[in-house]
Amino acid sequence: MFYKKVEALSTVNHRKFQISPEAEPFGFAREAQLIPAVFDEFTAAAHDLPIVFVPTGTGYTPVFLCGLTTGHNQFVDADGRWNRRYLPAYLRRYPFILGEQDGADPIICVDAEFPGFAETDGGTALFDEDGKQTDFMGRVVTLVTEYAASAKRTEAALAVLNELALFQTITIEAKDANGKVTTSLQGFAVINEQALSALPDEAFLRLRAAGILPAIYAHLMSVSLTRVLKDESEAQAA
Predict the structure, then answer these.
(1) Is the preceding omega at residue 95 within 30 degrees of 0, hence cis?
(2) 103 neighbors 95 (Cβ within 8 angstroms)
(3) pLDDT tens across 6-36, in order?
(4) pTM for the predicted model, two decimal places
(5) H-helix or E-strand containing 184?
(6) What letter does residue 134 receive in the DSSP assignment?
(7) Paired sense of beta strands 51-55 and 60-65, if any
């Protein structure tokens, strides 16, 4: 999502490039109904953003549900600003991303078509005059590499949840003032609390040993926030 032209960052091609603030800092996410999520951020995000799961070819993957209408993100306001306290890591790292190479170390890449990435003055430099990383770039490297590591931990956790068959599909609906259903979202999934409670001790201890339980409970708490999306959507419809 969002990345249009990914290039490997280098002091040869990008030494003088800077990142400049955008007038609409999250305008690029205005049409993103779903934002990818990783398990490590569930606890911090659960009070602000509903966390659900969407199907993949091998099971399910977590996302932040940001709206009930396709192509509309209710968490990005008219000025292109994020209007919730928690900002997903996927958005925080943009326009940077970690690039994998066969037989070589990963490299930091950037979306070269991000408007704020340019060879200009007045922004935040990525490299100094000697070609060394600036403090800003150091923080970028940390964020991007930690996100990649968290994504791998998420994959491992999802494998366990899929194996234990803990997902159940749900339907999310919004209604207008007359009670007519205006939006019906299907195909999403959540952790089945009954299935979780019915797990044999060995399986439950496996979740605890893997450190997955805090993320599960945070996810379950966050699902109630779909009510906030419904209220906002129904108010707009009215």
Answers:
(1) yes
(2) no
(3) 999 999 899 999 999 888 899 999 999 999 9
(4) 0.90
(5) strand 181-191
(6) P
(7) antiparallel
Residues in the chain: 238
Report the amino acid identity of residue 68: L
Tokens, residue 151: 């994504």
Buried b (16+ CB within 10 A) or exposed e, 155-186: eebbeebeebebbeebebebeeeeeeebbebe
Find residue 64's DSSP bridge partners.
Answer: 35, 51
Dist CA 46 CA 40 (whole Å): 11
Cβ(142)–Cβ(92) under 8 Å? no
Specify whether the CB–CB gap between 178 and 148 falls below 8 A: no
The count of other CB atoms within 10 Å of the CB of residue 45 is 23
Q: Could you report the per-residue pLDDT of 174-203, keeping only the tens digit for each?
A: 666 666 766 778 889 999 999 999 999 999
Q: Shortest CA distance to 74 belongs to which of 32, 37, 28?
A: 32
Nearest to 75 by CA among 186, 232, 184, 238: 232
Q: Give the integer Cα–Cα distance in Å for 133 and 150.
A: 24
By the 10 Å C-beta count (0-12 exposed, 13-18 middle, 19+ buried), 204 is classed as middle
178 residue type, one letter:
N
SS3 218: helix
Contact 74, 232 (CB under 8 A): yes
Q: Is 121 exposed, middle or buried (0-12, 13-18, 19+ CB in 10 A)?
A: exposed
CA distances from 30 to 49, 62, 174, 211 (A): 16, 19, 20, 33
